[in-house]
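Same chain as my last thread, 447 residues:
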Amino acid sequence: MTTAEETIAAMRAVAPPGQPDIDAATLAELARLTGRLITEADGGTDLCRFTAVRKRSIGLPADTSWLQGRSVLVTGGTGCVGSVLVGLLGQLGVAGVASVSRGRAAGWPRYPHAEYLTADITDPGQLAAAFRAASPDLVFHLAAQRDPGLAETLVRETVATNLLGTGNVIAAAAEAKVTDLIFASSGKALRPYSGEVYTATKRAAEWLLARAADGSDRRYSAARFTHVVDNSIIAARLGRWCASGGVVRLHDPAIMFYVQSARESAELLLRAGQAGRRGILRLSAMTDLGSPVGLVELAVGMLAQAGSAAPIYWSGYEAGYERAPFPGLYDPRTAGGVSPLLNGFEAAAVRPGPPVDTCQVRYPPCGQSDELLELLAARCAEPAPASAIRASLDRLSWSLLDGAMSVACRSTLARAAQLTERHRHSLSAEHSQMLEVIRKYADKAPG
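reply #2:
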């Protein structure tokens, strides 16, 4: 009897990664091996666990007095998490809720207590008009381009929405004298540097909020989400492949990923807002995300449930998805004790508090980063090629890495360098450059 690992090895031998097209004979063999894999891998357990996450909750914050009697604006309020948040706000005694979106989201509930406004956050004029109409006291900013793979194709649109659009929201909120701004970030932003467009824009958006918060009398907060099962990109793709019988193209059988529910995500935003403090950016993430879900088990579980004969092909990683994490991303001394959505540099300053861990996001004032942001905005405004926009974003990302490491704890930097040095022979060029930045500050950062 073969094992699931042996069957996967056979599948990869029959059809190595990186093939855009696969002939009929190979597909037939992949279909046979996929059927065998379904009998060998425990897909039912992980699929049930994945589906059950939709019912999870971390609970509302104990104190909601900061919301009561106040007017709230939610960007992206017609999306998955946004619609849940709008629904919860209606139960918390707010004076009113306005949702601002481009009007493209569909399939999520709308509520009679909310006003739905149409505006694109990439257009400052439209956004200003929406703020005037809503007159908010507080803002939850969720609007984003959320697909990492699509971000590699829609480079200009992703930068304009996720990064420059966030800047527009910050400016509009300041103009409207909003007291609290809470931002929906991504678990991918735990990476101190990334050459991938989606991750880089979310990381840089956190920097924008930290810059706005520095010394301000307003409260700025951020919450990092991981894979939201209610609006899962991979589950939606698997569903389409199951229905069509097309080739199920998956990155790698070793992939495992954390998940959370839309309810948990909305509650996390509310808890992040409660944790907000004037003059600094506070970042929140769920302490316990449970055990990660295996991609193999989820895929075979969905195929078995649908009775689909679609073949699985292990295609290799697409652009927008990291193949291997930076070896110094987590410190074993802190990993496991705090949220996996906080890296080792952040974990050193975490305030643990199940169900949510919080830490301060710090960047030093940096004229170079500001100049690089202006250059990036100019590239997006002009008919520059996507490659030029990507290059400008990458320069900003390296500048932000340098800034973040310059204010990190010396002992934390030294530990990260030590952990990474063990892998020096196998580091990518990107990870080698990250190590050099860390080592540069390890001997002169504050203790």
